[in-house]
Amino acid sequence: MSPITLILIAIGLGLAGWLAGRAKAWSFQKSDPSIRLVARPNYHAWYVAVWIVIPVLAFIVLWSIVAPQLVMQSVLASPAANVLPDFGFERQSILSEARAVASGNAQAVFNPDAQGLVKPFYGAISRYNIIGLVVTIIIGFGGGAFAFLRVKPDFRARTRVERTVMIVLLLASLVAILTTFGIFASLVFETVRFFGMISPLDFLFGTYWSPDPMSSAANPDSTRYGAIPLFWGTIFIGAIIAMIVAIPLGLMSAVYLTQYANPRLRAWVKPALEILAGVPTVVYGYFAALTVAPVIRDAAVAVGISNASTESALAAGVVMGVMIIPFVSSMADDSIAAVPSAMRDGSLAMGATQSETIKRVLFPAALPGIVAGVMLAVSRAIGETMIVVMAASTAANLSANPLDRMTTVTVQIVKMLTGEGSFDHPATLSAFALGFVLFMVTLVLNFIALRVVKRFREAYD
Amino acid sequence: MTVIHDNLEETNAKMRARDVSVYYGDKKAIDEVSIDISADYVTAFIGPSGCGKSTYLRCFNRMNDTIPVARVTGTIELEDEDIYGSGMDVVQLRARVGMVFQKPNPFPKSIYDNIAYGPKIHGLVEKKADTDEVVEKSLVRAGLWDEVKDRLDESGTALSGGQQQRLCIARAIAVDPEVILMDEPCSALDPIATAKIEELINDLSGRYAIVIVTHSMQQAARVSQRTAFFHLGKIVEYGRTSDIFTNPIEERTKDYITGRYG
Ligand SMILES: Nc1ncnc2c1ncn2[C@@H]1O[C@H](COP(=O)(O)OP(=O)(O)OP(=O)(O)O)[C@@H](O)[C@H]1O
Ligand SMILES: [Mg+2]
Fold first, then answer.
1. Which residues, 6+ apart, have CB-to-CB distance to A73 below 8 Å?
2. How many CA atoms does the CB half-sphere of B186 hold within 13 Å?
3. Is B196 in the pocket of ligand 1 (CB under 6 A)?
4. Distance (Å, rounded) from C-alpha A234 to C-alpha A425?
5. From ligand 1's centre to the CA of A383, what distance in Å?
6. How far apart are CA A269 and CA A158, in angstroms?
7. Residue B4 contacts residue B239 (beta carbons within 8 Å)
8. Structure confidence by residue, pLDDT tens digits, A342-378
9. What are phi and psi of A303, to 5 degrees?
10. For residues A456 and A194, what is the distance between their CA atoms, to the nearest angstrom?
């Protein structure tokens, strides 16, 4: 009996309970019109259904974990299990083969030893299936009967149902939070392992990055694990070059759209700009590698820099900047539009021109929102991988020349995890330490940005 | 047609509006309305909601230009100069004809910068000392100096509603306008703050030509010397405030001031 069947049974029972609860609630009203139900019949119906479905589902979850172990125990207790080797891989494979055949997932066994176990497995599985089914039905009826008996005219079914709904919503929101914690915990765990092999000081302040996944894992050369060139590459590409492109263009387009564009144009341009945000980053990567990088190289050669390469921080940064424009412009647009029009009128009525009004009143008033938008954009940019892989190389390089090859934290994470090193080699583990640093930085940036946005909202409420 | 009381002496007209109509799209909100705004008196616009008082007021500093669908016809002169003519720069016009809005709208800047804003954009001040002087003078005239002189760096939005409105008046005064337009300047304020603003209007009258839109008959009676009663996009009756309130000629004016509608 698969969990799916049990779940269908739960839903069926729930539906029956729903109808029964509603019928009972209606019958009160019908039998005596002077009775006023505290809650409407539908709430009584939901109350009964909830009391059936939730305990049953809880049991199904529990049962799907416990039942296989019970089956295993009873098989091992059978005399046929005596032929099994005591430990090890062979024992496991014999057992799983027999189980597969018994539950109908395989045609026949390869290992003749397994043949004798098929029967005990079959018996145990069907026995526990029946037990599971019976318990499911008992719980369903038990919960349903309990709830059904409580359905009375003065029973406050609505508050109960609403509380249940609220708890379900709460659990749903916890999923995202718990996932974040889970990610964080696993990162921390691996990072600690990495720092057990490489000193954090060498990692955070070293200027040479070239981990060798083939070297001995026992005593790694910690001078090859200096992450400064990666941090620098990330900041240079994501926070400097990309922002030099994105901030002015984003802000200017926001100003144009909010202040000058006529509404018909705005209705077209704004969604078009937002589509930019939906283009997959790989596509930007092609564009950077195939179009922008060669143009930059040719331009550099034309002005006499003969050793310019096709992979450059500039190409990656510029394209990343273009990718980020929608973030900056839509946040700036929202916060400029959120400045009360009374502010603008006040300034215009003082005889300020439109550009003075934008510069001296709207912009300062919208600044917190704009700053927050820029910070979100930065945290997006420093997490970006594809464009850099495709346009700025994977070799670490500590350089201030935008025409140089350069790499970033995220690119190295991918490189280290997909490299040839074994999983407990420091070169592989360094990916987690890098990820941890990146996680912390973007977390702080997002946190600050959200705080700023919140303060800003309050200012005009 | 507008009924104009015949006991009015020649006044020193600061602004003259002639046959002004305003359209919002195809809808006519003001229908050929003429009036003189006296330099020496406070003029009140009264009338039921939606009759076009604000719309008409905004014609005098061309704030209707900021509403894309609005269109103004007719002429308005400021000292014999057509403000809708090609010779008039709207920036200059608004420096000469200031405006105070219904809801106090100080900029989210310091009190000092709120006042210094206008003089700076119009290039009236160069040195810091000049600016300090203008800020102090404007705040003194607006009756706010004593309350804020120790906290000029605080944000203008941190003041109380009444103080904010006086800050807005001070801000308007700072560019030394000739006319001040006020659109229901007290409607968001409590009675005490309202009394302060009314007192301020009395102080300012004579120095500036003032036009005030108000829904309060008492307020019009307390602060103004001339009153125009608006109805359905027209001025129905214009005269001395005391006459409008005690001896209205038109039936509709009578009904309105006795509270029978509006
Ligand atoms: N921006 C606008 N776009 C279109 N129509 C407008 C606009 N502003 C005002 N109107 C219309 O013009 C007419 C006059 O409005 P106005 O605001 O001048 O009235 P008011 O006398 O000031 O009213 P209140 O006493 O309520 O402030 C109204 O019918 C209004 O609906
Ligand atoms: Mg109005």
1. none
2. 22
3. no
4. 24
5. 51
6. 47
7. yes
8. 999 999 999 999 899 999 999 888 888 888 888 888 8
9. -90, 10
10. 41
Question: Could you identify the atom of ligand 1 that is nearest to the CA of residue B53?
Answer: 21
Alpha carbons A325 and A249: distance in angstroms, whole number: 7
Neighbours of A133 (CB within 10 A): 15
Q: For chain A, which residues lie within 8 Å of any Cβ of chain B, measuring from their own Cβ?
A: 262, 340, 342-353, 356, 360-361, 364-365, 459
Ligand 1 contact via B231 beta carbon (within 6 Å)? no
- pLDDT average, residue stretch A69-83: 82
Per-residue pLDDT, averaged over A25-30, amounts to: 84
Residue A22 CA, distance from chain mean position: 40
List the single best residue of A350, A358, A460 to mutate versus B (max B Cβ within 10 A): A350
Question: CB of B193 within 8 A of CB of B165?
Answer: yes
Q: How far apart are CA B135 and CA B129, in angstroms?
A: 10
List the alpha helices (DSSP H) in B69-216: 90-96, 111-121, 128-141, 145-148, 161-173, 191-204
CB-CB under 8 Å, A351 with B101 = no
Residue position matching structure tokens 């006040």: A346
Residues of chain B contacting residue A461, judged by C-beta atoms under 8 Å apart: none
Token readout for A281 is: 């980053």
Partners of residue A350 in chain B, C-beta under 8 Å: 94-95, 98, 117-118, 121, 171-172, 175
User: Two tokens at A287?
Assistant: 């564009």
What is the average pLDDT across A336-345?
Answer: 90
Within 10 angstroms of residue A193's Cβ, the number of other Cβ atoms is 14
Residue nearest to atom 11 of ligand 1 (CA): B29
N-to-C CA span, chain A:
58
Contacts of A362 (CB under 8 A, 6+ apart): A259, A336, A339, A343, A344
pLDDT category at B68 given cuts 50, 70, 90 is: confident
* Chain position carrying tokens 């395989």: A106
Residues 6 or more apart in contact with residue A431 via CB below 8 angstroms: A412, A413, A414, A416, A417
Q: What is d(CA B203, CA B163) in angstroms, rounded to the nearest whole number?
A: 17
- Give the mean model confidence (pLDDT) for residues A69-78: 85
pLDDT band at A312 (very low <50, low <70, confident <90, very high): confident
What was the pLDDT predicted at B74? 94
pLDDT of the residue at A304: 81
The β-bridge relationship of strands B70-78 and B81-82 is antiparallel
The DSSP result for A362-406, as a single string, is IHHHHHHHHHHHHHHHHHHHHT--HHHHHHS-SS----S-TTS--
- Cβ-Cβ contacts under 8 Å, A457 against chain B: none
Tell the residue number behind the tokens 């040839």, with chain if given: A420
Angle at A269 between CA A265 and CA A272, to 5 degrees: 150
Using the predicted structure, report yes or no on whether residue A456 has a pLDDT greater than 70: no
Cβ atoms A396, A209 nearer than 8 A: yes
Residue A416's pLDDT is 86
